[in-house]
């Protein structure tokens, strides 16, 4: 079993940063939702998920990186370079947060060969994660 690559560590840190930001936004908006929506399911599960996915999508479309990715000097790109399309971003986000962990655990060695550039959701969406130089936060 290979050790975790530096790129993978940066990816993990970036997603933790983005999760912390999304969680803060969710907590801030929860009182507003509680007054408007009676279903606890909506503001405990649906709302945080929609906020997390929405923030990631918006940041990737507007800035090419999430805040966490920018802080870790990494970015999501098309396999052939350049910014991912809206469809690629959606495929990536949905796959990563649904089936990707199971696919990864089933055949981890396949993804270790990519040295952190690709995980199942990257293969599914035809995207890679690359380190970027001179990235100023």
| Multimeric organization | single chain
| Fraction of residues in H or I helices | 55-70%
Cα distance, first to last residue? 34 Å
**What percentage of the residues does DSSP assign to strands (E)?**
5-15%
Which overall shape is indicated by the principal axes computed on the Cα atoms? globular
The radius of gyration is 16 Å
Total DSSP helices: 7
Largest sheet: 2 strands, antiparallel
- H/E element sequence: HHHEHHHHE
The poorly predicted ranges are none
Instruction: Kindly state the number of beta strands.
Output: 2
Question: How do the strands line up in the largest sheet?
Answer: 1-2
Mean pLDDT: 90
Going by helix content, strand content and strand pairing, the class is mainly alpha
Keywords: Membrane, Transmembrane, Transmembrane helix
Pfam families: RDD
Membrane topology: Multi-pass membrane protein
Protein name: RDD domain-containing protein
């Amino acid at each position: 079993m290979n050790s975790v690559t530096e790129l993978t560590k940066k990816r993990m840190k970036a997603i933790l940063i983005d999760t912390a930001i999304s969680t803060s936004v969710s907590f801030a908006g929860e009182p507003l939702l509680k007054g408007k929506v009676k279903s606890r399911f909506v503001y405990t599960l649906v709302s945080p998920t929609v906020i997390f996915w929405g923030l990631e999508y918006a940041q990737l479309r507007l800035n090419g990186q999430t805040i966490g990715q920018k802080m870790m000097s990494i970015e999501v790109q098309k396999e052939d370079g350049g910014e991912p399309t809206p469809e690629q971003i959606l495929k990536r986000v949905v796959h990563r947060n649904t089936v990707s962990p199971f696919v990864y655990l089933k055949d981890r060695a396949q993804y270790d060969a990519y040295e952190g550039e690709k995980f199942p959701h990257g293969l599914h969406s035809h995207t890679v994660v690359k380190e970027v130089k001179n990235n100023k936060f």
